[in-house]
Amino acid sequence: MKDYEQHKKNFLKLLSESASTMPSEYQKVAKYIRRYYKKVSFMNLPELTEKLSIEEEIINNYISNIGFQSFEEFRNELRHVAMVDLKTTDRFQISMDMINPKVNSIMNLVVNKEISNLKSLSTTLNEQTFASIVGEVIKANEIIVVGTRASAPITLYAEYMLNRIGKRTGKIMSGGTENLDSLSLIDRSSLVIGFGFARYPKETIKLLSFFKKRNMKIISITDNLMSPLARFSDIVMTIPCESMSFTDFYATPICVINALVILVSQLDEHTSLKHLNEFENIAKDMGFYF
After folding, report:
1. Interacting residues of 158 by C-beta distance below 8 A, sequence separation 6+
2. pLDDT tens across 170-217, in order?
């Protein structure tokens, strides 16, 4: 987290120092963003201009002068700085200030934010990194999926889908003693896939640190390269997971898991089809479905 704290310090220092020699309107923009950076990280350009009663051109010029090509690029950087600091209560208060508490309004915001995350995933996906992950999953004899707290449901789904196509997969969804007791039994040749997003649970970080000390191959799926998961990982895939309130928005990790499983199954068709058929036979015998 030291790298993150230094990055945050440098970024906020840039906002303060850059404005000192600029026109008064630019200084007004800088002071507001510096003071309310958590809230601004959730605002779009029209909302910020309305709040400051300043033309969009002035804000865009200020942002350009400090080295960003667009407000969206600046806001994304601001979001990275703010996300780790955002407590549940911060997110809740920001949502109360910005969201109209009506069913249609909130539903539209939630759906549109997930759509925005998915579009961003589609346009920013690093195909080379994703291909490397696919290759490691195909090679692995055993996989351990790690994700705690809000990432636990993602971990559960990843384990379920990977087992469906014949990849022997286990999961760790907490740092409790029931999991710690079995850590020594995990084969060091196993592939570790970690999920973790801001505010980055310490349980996940400690588990990845443990596996790193055992020289195990680690893949992290997280929200930015400054994530504390990254330093323990051999491969890091970043995906957008922006939220509007204290809840977590996880359409993109589920999408990544689905794409990973589909691609692995196509590249290893024989194994995948064999296990899918076995699953169908078991499901029929056990009466899993109506």
Report:
1. 145, 147, 169, 171, 193, 195, 257
2. 999 986 656 666 787 888 999 999 999 987 899 999 999 999 999 999
User: What are residue 134's DSSP bridge partners?
Assistant: none
Q: Is 60 exceeded by the pLDDT of residue 103?
A: no
d(CA 4, CA 12): 12
Instruction: Write the burial class of residue 173 (CB in 10 Å: 0-12 exposed, 13-18 middle, 19+ buried).
Output: buried
- In degrees rounded to 5, what are phi and psi of residue 237? -115, 120
CA dihedral angle for residue 71, residue 76, residue 80, residue 85, rounded to 10 degrees = 60
Q: Tell me, what CATH number does 188's domain have?
A: 3.40.50.10490
Provide the pLDDT for residue 91.
Answer: 54
pLDDT above 90 as % of the chain? 40
Query: Which of 72, 102, 132 corresponds to the end of one domain?
Result: 102
127 and 267 both lie in a single domain: yes
CATH number of domain containing 49: 1.10.10.10
Range of the domain at 201: 123-286
